[in-house]
Design a protein that fits this description.
This protein is α/β, with parallel strands linked by helices. It contains eleven helices and twelve strands.
Length: 362
């Protein structure tokens, strides 16, 4: 299963899911939850305790928009793919105006273009970016964009759902004010949680934002400091999902982040090299723009996307993801995330694809 999410979970995660479900205010669980928050803080390489919201990462992304964007904010939405474009609906709902900086979905955002957009509109106060837009298989230059936004003084929201854990991407190093990711991608855990890092200045803006949700399932602020003894949970936490996340974070730390990133990068490099050897065209215009966590390639002539996907599944037992939105019908996507980021899986995929394509030319 080489799909772009959910991904196959690690064995340690499956075992953790079978743990007894404790009462959420049991002292043992309260301490366990605090320990998981600390492990996540370390993984984020942040000095500030993160937040875990009880829903798939789309909850975290919408909650971030609702919390940080106020009625007087002008938002610069950086669009290089389907998910970056999708953020516009939330930014427009909560902000005063949305300014779009878009590139074709086979390209990436140029930090210099961001700088110029901020120069043209000095009233821009919030910038939003999807780091890795999986339907395109491209990776935006997060650190460079983050530095540009910080220089301007704007706040930065980053969707790192499909990048964190698979490469060197961390909120404080990139000057990100709200950084959202998921355990069900490169960490190799289950869907059902949103993992969020908020900067100090981000929390201050949320506190000042009278429009930020309070007393709502969308309330990011409600989860701040939820791990501190004596505090209450806004809603019952997803106990089993927290167990799974704990196991995934332990595995990530044990293998070593740099080793995990190297495994993802090697797997993706093998996939790209194999595709090019077969004469298959990568979706991104430049190989340097390809993400190490998913490889998108154009459908070879004579096939539809569904036909090729189904043949890979039915004849070789390999399941890839179709395109989405503007890339629907144009690409297939090989995920390299978590347990699926193994060089052998990339080699098997290329071998299977070679078998199918060679028979079509016989």
């Amino acid at each position: 299963m080489l799909t772009t999410g959910p991904v196959p979970v690690y064995p340690e995660v499956l075992k953790a899911l079978g743990s007894p479900v404790l009462y959420d205010y049991h002292p043992t669980f309260r301490q366990f939850y605090a320990d998981v928050i600390e492990k996540l803080r370390v993984a984020f390489r942040s000095s500030i305790a993160p937040v875990i919201m009880q829903g798939e990462a789309i909850l975290g992304i919408e909650a971030a928009a609702a919390a940080l964007i106020g009625g007087n904010d002008v938002v610069l939405n950086l669009v290089s793919g389907v998910y970056g474009k999708g953020f516009e609906s939330w930014a427009g709902r909560y902000g005063k105006e949305v300014v779009e900086l878009a590139v074709p979905f086979d390209e990436i955002i140029d930090p210099q273009a961001v700088r110029e957009a901020l120069h043209r509109r000095p009233d821009i106060s919030v910038v939003s970016l999807c780091h890795h837009d999986t339907p395109s298989g491209t990776l935006n230059p997060l650190n460079e964009i983050g530095a540009t936004v910080a220089e301007h003084g704007a706040y930065l929201i980053v969707d790192a759902v499909s990048s964190f854990g698979g490469l060197d991407a961390h909120p404080q190093a990139a000057h990100v004010d709200i950084f959202i990711t998921s355990p069900s991608k490169c960490l190799g855990s289950t869907p059902g949680l949103s993992l969020i890092s908020v900067s100090e200045r981000g929390w201050e803006k949320i506190e000042r934002n009278a429009d930020a949700p309070r007393g709502s399932f969308l309330s990011l602020a409600a989860w701040k400091d939820a791990s501190i003894p004596g505090r209450t949970f806004p809603v019952t936490p997803s106990i089993a999902e927290i167990y799974a996340l704990d196991a995934a974070l332990d595995r990530y730390a044990l293998e070593g982040p740099e080793n995990v990133w190297a495994r993802h990068a090697e797997t993706a490099a093998i996939a790209r090299a194999g595709l090019l050897e077969l004469g298959v065209t990568l979706w991104p215009k430049r190989e340097a723009w390809c993400a190490p966590t998913a490889t998108a390639f154009k459908i070879p002539g004579g096939y539809t996307d569904v036909e090729l996907r189904d043949r890979l599944l039915n004849e070789h037992g390999i399941l890839l993801s179709l395109g989405r939105g503007d890339t629907t019908g144009k690409v297939l996507r090989i995920a390299h995330m978590g347990a699926s980021a193994e060089p052998e899986f990339a080699r098997k995929t290329i071998t299977a694809l070679s078998s199918i394509l060679s028979r079509s030319t016989d």
